[in-house]
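Entry 14: structure prediction run for phosphoserine phosphatase. Input pasted below.
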Amino acid sequence: MKQKNIYIIDFDSTFTQVEALDELARISLKKHPDKEAIFKKIEDLTNLAMEGKLSFSESLAQRVKLLDASEDHLKQLITRLKKKVSMSFSRNAAFFKKHADQVLIVSGGFKEFITPVVSQYHIKKENIYANTFVTTGDGKIIDYDHANPLSEEGGKVKLMQQLNLEGDLYGIGDGYSDFQLRESGMIKKFFAFTENISRESIVSRADHVTPSFDEFLYVNNLPRAISYPKNRILCLIIGEVPAESIALLKKDGFSIRHLSTFEDKYVKDVHMVLMGEGEKMDPAKLQLAVKLKTVGYLGSAKSNLDVQTCTDMGIVIFEDSKHNPRNANFIPKRMMDFMNTGTTYLSSNFPNLQLPRFNQSHRLIHVHHNVPGIMAQINTVFAKHSINIVGQFLMTNATIGYVITDINAEYDKDVFKALKKIDQTIKFRVLY
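Run finished. Output tokens:
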């Protein structure tokens, strides 16, 4: 009989974007005259423990003493943490609901603030393992339960030994205490989570580096909100491009390379290109860029980019022909909207289509030459595979037909092969 998979997930800088004790310090010490020095001390203690340079128990004891916090401060912290859940965890809430029996939160943090945050994601309270505070009668935090194994050095290993779980265990986290589970041999694989912070001492020893929870779900063939992790989508920045443009694309999770020219080694793997004004793209290289989905151009693209070839290949162009100062942000945002939702609004070579997003569905994009009968063929494929269509949108121009279809999440993946085989198809992809 196949072993059950169990997913052991860290909280600080993994499930959430921040270290909760650091945030609690910023709340509790807000009016303290030496707050900046204390903040720095707490952050240093956190990092030393996460990198394995200071025992976790010593780091925790020193941080709690420095906090000067109360239960009222905890309430403020919980409100803040609920807004700081890591984006890739937030968008995969459906996974936690479906796999509630298999997900454990194991953290050196504290139940008082962890439970209210992760419970929103259908994670069972009995599957949350963390430390607990000790308070006085008036609610002041003075200590923590030292009998809890998670308060000790190697605490996660000690806890797992006590639980003696049956199944294949997978660990996801950003720090040394997470890696210790792999080092102990108690888990099958350790995934270093780097969406919020990347610690080289941990990354170098991980079984797999996962820049997002989407990546973890993808490599383990688990249900997920988006079909292809953004960290696997290569975006080339070519020439002089404002830092704010690059920051937008990087923040959205794409894999960024900033180059002076369109280097040969990237041509066959690139998905997105953002070009600075005056940059030219070699038509021969463009024709080899078979995965390229969209080009953003900070200027007029007409004399620098073969627009007709882009159109024939199903590549959507967004350009700044009027040199609007806002377009340092506007063009990258249009590219992001296209990659994230399929929206082609204000494209210079594709039918303009703005789209709502449907929950609990997958979005399929079909680009084809604008000839009669294609729509009928697409829907015949869906009918043959008993696909339930949630929503469908079609826009055309003189040469291109652009169809977006939202379907129920349960389907036979052979439908993809059938859609790709339709005559006059230029490009097909599953968006999410």
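Notes: The mean pLDDT is 92. Will compare against the previous run tomorrow.
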